[in-house]
Amino acid sequence: MDLKVLQRHASSLGAQLGLVTRTRHVREDAEALGIPVFESAGEAQRVAWPSPGRRRLPWHAPVKNLRGKREQASVKEEAWRSNPFTRLSAFTIGVVSVFALVSLFIPSAQVTLSHVTKLQSIALPVVASESVESVFVTGSIPAREKRIVLDGMQTVNVTGEGVIPQSKARGVVLFRNLTQEAVTIPSGTIVEAARDALVRFVTLENGVVDAGVGKTIELPVEAMEGGLAGNLPAETLIVIDGRLGLSLSVTNLEPTAGGRELSSVQASDADRARAKDLLTSFLDDEARLTYLNELNSGDILFENTISVSQTLLEEYDPPAGAASSRLTLTMQVEYSARYASASDLTELASLALNASLPLGFSPASEAVTVEPVTTPALDDSGSARWQIRAEREIVRFIDAASVTYLIRGTSLQTAQTRLDDAFPLDRSPEIKLSPSWWQWIPLLPFRIEVVTE
What we know:
It contains nine helices and 25 strands. The chain is α+β, with helices and mostly antiparallel strands. Among the domains are: 2-46, no CATH class; 103-115 and 397-452, no CATH class; 162-262, no CATH class. Strands 4, 5, 20, 21, 22 and 23 form a six-stranded mixed sheet that branches. The longest helix has 26 residues, at 269-294. It is elongated.
C-alpha cells in the first residue's frame, strides 16, 4: 500500500518512482506494481529505466438526456426558507449575536482598591554573644568586634628632681695571677664592686700578667657610668666579669675619684605616670567617639567592652635621667570593642515580625524600624542583653481573582456595593469602564484589571 501511494504521488509530480533495495519482499512488491528496482544508486543512474505503462480507461457510451437528469438532480429550496419572516428573524439573530460578541470582548474595566494598612509592632529580648555566628529567631545574634588604632601626645610640667652626671670616676686596679701561665688582660675588661654590681669599671689599656702565681700588674680603669656612685673606697673593686675571674684576682689599692654630678629638674616616675594617665583618659574618650562615628546607622555599641587590646608605641621625651622642665609622652594604642550590627537586628526583627504576622496580611514593604527599649548590659558570660522594639507597616491581602469573580457581569453600582461589603478598604473602590458610557462590568475575567494601592 505504501509503495502504491508513493507511486501515485510520483506520477502526480510528473516523475517516475524507482527503488534501490536488496530486501527480497520489498523487491517482489515493487516488481508486482511495475516499479523498477536496482541494487545500488550507481546502477540506477547507469541503467535505462523502463517506460511506465499507460493505463487505458474503459470505454463508455455517451449518456443521453443529460439536461433532464440535471433537473432531476437539482434540489429545490424548501418553502419556509423563502418566507420573509424567517429571513428577518435570521438577520435579527445575526445582528444580536454580533452585538453580544462585541459586548463580551470590547468593554473593559479597571478596579482600583486601596489596601487596609496597619502598624505591626513587637518587643523582643536580644542576646548578643561572640559564640553566636548567625541570627536566630529566639533573639540570639552575633556580637561583632571592631578594632581601631589611635595616636596621642601628652605634655606635662616636670615636678621631680634628679642629678645629671658630669664626669666619670677613675682609678687604678691591681690584677694578681692565680696560675703558672701568663694571662692577657684586654682593654675593656669589666671589674665590679662586690657590694654594688651596678657600679662597674672598665680597663683603659691592654695588659699581660707574667707567668707565676702572685705575679701582678696595675691597669687604669674608668667607671662605665658618670656621677658620684663611681667614687669608691679602696679595696672595693674585687670582682672580674667573665672567664678571667678564674685566672686572676683584682682590687683597687686606692680609692676611685673624679665622679661628679649636677642637680637638675628631671621627670620622676610620678610625672611619667601622670602623663600616661592623662593621655590614656583622653584616648579612651577619643576611642568612644570614634566608634560612635565609624559604626553604621543603627549599630549598637557596647560601651563597656571598649578596651585597649595592645599598646603599639609608648615613648617619653626626654628619656629617663635627662634634665628637662617638660615631659612629652607619645602613644599609639589599639582599641577593640563589640557591637550589634544593624543588619543583624533588622534580620532578627523581620523573622520575629513574620512569625507573628496576622492572617490575611502581608508586609507593605521591606522597611523595618528597630529601636532599643533598654540599654545593653553585660552578663557574667560577657554577652550583652537588652530589649528592642520592631515595627513595620502591613497591608491586608486582596486576591484579584476573587474581586473579578465577585463583580463580573454586574452593574457599576452593584459592583461597588459588593466590594465595600466583601473587603475592608481605606476608601470606596474606584471603577473605570471603557467605553465610558458602558455601565456594566465585563463578563470575561481577562477584560477586568484589578489595581491595588
